[in-house]
Amino acid sequence: MGLPLGALGLFGEAFQFVFQGREAATGGVTVGGLDQVLELAAKQLEVTLLALLVSLVLALPVGVLLGHYGKGEFVAVSAGNAGRAIPELALIALMAAAVGVGLFNLVVALAILGIPPILTNAFVGIRQVDQVSVEAARGMGMTDREIITKVELPLAVPTIMGGVRTSAINIIATATIAPLAGILTLGDFIISRNVYGDAGVLAGAILVALMALALELTLAGIQWKLTSPGLKIQRT
Amino acid sequence: MSAGPPAQTAQDDDPGDRPSGNQSTATPVKYEEVSKRYPGTDSDAVHELSLEVPAGEICVLVGPSGCGKTTAMRMVNRTVEMTSGDILIGDRSVRQGDAAELRREIGYVIQQIGLFPHRTIAENIGTVPGLLGWSRAEIEQRVEALLKLIDLNPEFGDRYPSQLSGGQQQRVGVARALAVDPPVMLMDEPFGAIDPINRSRLQNEFLRLQAELRKTVLFVTHDVDEAIKMGDRIAILRKGGEVAQFATPTELLMEPADDFVEDFVGADRALKRLALMRVSDASLWKAQICRAGDPTGPVRTDLASAEVPHALLVDAESKPVGWLSERDLAAEQVPARPDSPADPLIDADSILRDGLATLLQSGSRYAPVVDGRGHLTGILSVEIISEFLSSGEATESDLAAVERPHE
Amino acid sequence: MSSWVADGWLADGWLAGAAVSSDFFRDRSGGGCIQENKLFCPDWAINNLDRYSDPTLQHLVLVVSAVAAGFVIAFSLAVLAHRHRFLSSPFLAATGVLYTIPSISFFFLLLPITGRGAVTAIIALTAFTLQIIFRNMTTGLRNVPPEVTEAARGVGLTATQVLWKVEIPLAMPEIIAGLRIATVSTVALATLAVFANGGGLGAEIVTGSNITFKTGIIIAGSIAILMAIVFDALLLLTGRLLAPWKRVAL
What we know:
The complex is a heterotrimer. Chain A is mainly α. Chain A contains ten helices and two strands; from the N terminus they run αββααααααααα. Chain A has helices at 7-19, 34-69, 73-85, 88-99, 103-127, 131-139, 144-174, 187-191, 193-226, 229-235, and strands at residues 22-23, 30-31. In chain A, helix 1 crosses helix 9, helix 2 (34-69) runs antiparallel to helix 7 and helix 5 crosses helix 7. Chain A is elongated, with a radius of gyration of 22 Å. The model of chain A is unreliable at 1-6 (pLDDT under 50). By secondary structure, chain B is of the alpha/beta class. Chain B has two domains: 22-276, Rossmann fold; 280-392, CBS-domain. Helices cover 33% and strands 20% of the residues of chain B. Chain B is globular. Chain C has one domain (41-242): MetI-like (MetI-like fold), CATH 1.10.3720.10. In chain C, 72% of the residues lie in helices and 0% in strands. Chain C has helices spanning 3-6, 14-18, 32-35, 42-48, 53-83, 88-100, 103-109, 111-114, 118-142, 146-154, 159-189, 201-210, 214-242. The chains are: A mainly alpha, B alpha/beta, C mainly alpha. At the A-C interface, helix 1, helix 3, helix 4, helix 7 and helix 8 of A face helix 6, helix 7, helix 8, helix 11 and helix 12 of C.
């Protein structure tokens, strides 16, 4: 359990691990290298986006409809609170042990983590829309569907996207421990230290952090695009 | 039912009832024993209300809070569903068909305005045309026309509501309600959230619009002064949504039906008559006017016998510049810059009450009256107003001859 | 960090402790239930509960240290940002980055600096809580009605007094709300501390996972959830005591 040789040294090794690969901690074979890094990164992105998509498809319509009709506040809000209390590690481990390993089960487990923030924020976002706007829309002859799509959703974009971003961060972070469920993501570098060594662990940590930040930035950009300029002016 | 924009329907031979352009004919609105009881209450919010609003008139529903005036109005576009009775627009019951489709044919303006903050002004105004499936070009054309109508620079079309003042927003709210030229408009305390000065301006503006458009308007307010100013007819409601009196403003002021109405209208009924007349309708004094460079001699001579003891300097377009003092007149020629400015100026379109208020506020006994372009039309004085109040002009028989301001 | 981290049971080496020891299934195990590895074996759970007391305590220390440190830092940042508005955006961005970096990744970014162990885990968890507490507190301070602070200044309170006697008490519901979110999330996240050799309930989960022993995973996971609920309830109560004029929403 020797401490790292020195900060720069280990960072240097991590770079080497990513771009060239290094000898495995167990000796013999070479591990790491750009090919493996890209393969695992692609996998991590794949399970993340799949799980986020499933969460969105399941949670967004429910949250929006509950919010629009003002029903199920307790369910929608408790879901968010309960969701936070679920230990990610236990969920993934139990899913793998009780239901089995594999992509489908992993995506289901990740989606379970992704649903609560989207559901809660969709509900709250729609509820918080200024009722004057809704009343005006109704008085002008908008149907419920038109009120939702033309008034409530555009006005709730910041809150809803806030939920999507929280959800995405939860999912991509948890996808790091996906190797426990038999799907090899970048987390494998971190978890299987006995194979990749400290250089691999640090490389994995850096790559996961960069990936999470990139996802967050992308979603922030999408939110900026989706938010009406009229709302941005108001905020300043 | 789809409405076309004015440009198209102008050439349209279809005589159907599609609202369009300035040719849409207003439609009467008729309440037939309409009642509303909210669930969980044991008395009617509106009780067997019967009322007929003639086409093209403004009918004000006024009363104390809780009298059911807003409920009564909102049953027309079914944002509140009536419990019994019926409301007819023309000869069609509002109960027929889909509520959302009905609402698209009825203009709706609310106190909080309710512009969509995420849509540009143009998009806000084009909301209902969009719902009705007008083409982009048709909507653009209509929006342009409406911005012109409410006297807003076309540039504002691309701005967002938060970039507009409260008064501008309210005008956009009215334009949005007029977008498909609905024959009937509902206005729920539309100027309630606007400061008094702008409110009076917006009221005048709307009356000017209405003189042109002739919509059938149901107008809710709790302010009896506003009711008298805006209404062709006023329905005073008491608790339970019963009509205490349904009459023209003049009748209401002259012959309140009972103590409730008399109380509600207020002890200053006589003063309220000032709301029935426009400044331009009063017999204004003639000012002794002069222009810069005129010799002062003749002006001094004429002043001796004039109604107004001061000469008013006007510019080449006969816009008032200022009052000439003794010192100004002591010179050989009328100076270009007199000692005292012409303020305050009174809008010829404003009602006598507002004119009087302006006079009293400024502390002057008289003030120049100008038309919409700023040209001098006469002088209003405190004497003119007190004469109006004390003379036969304010008696019932004479008032019957005085037409409503928004002619 | 103080000395309690360095010595005793908070020191390195928990992962070894998490390995399956030979007496994992002692004769007091649930027999058939264990052989068949059913979803949950109540008998085994009852007989082996003592096994979870140490991990639970470790978990508790991780959570309390991280949230306490996070609170102190975020609180100071929020007060600073409240005094100097221009600091608000950079603070929000910086805490946002720390929030976004997955904790498990954060543990190992610290590897070259702090090595493995509870301290590393606590630092990463602290970093995670900052944004939640900071954001809630700034919102709370901003939502204090201006007429109230105006009145406070009017009766002669200094800026510091206004902050401590008026603004912070009035922002208390939002501050507590932020603490609740941060604490509950941290209880769940702290299960990952096992990867940094930080101990806690995660060690039991990993053990259970390694031998696909579902009962073990469920017990450890349930203790974590229970701990989150208890913390949440305690903070809710604290909020009601500190802001009795306002019912803190469930």
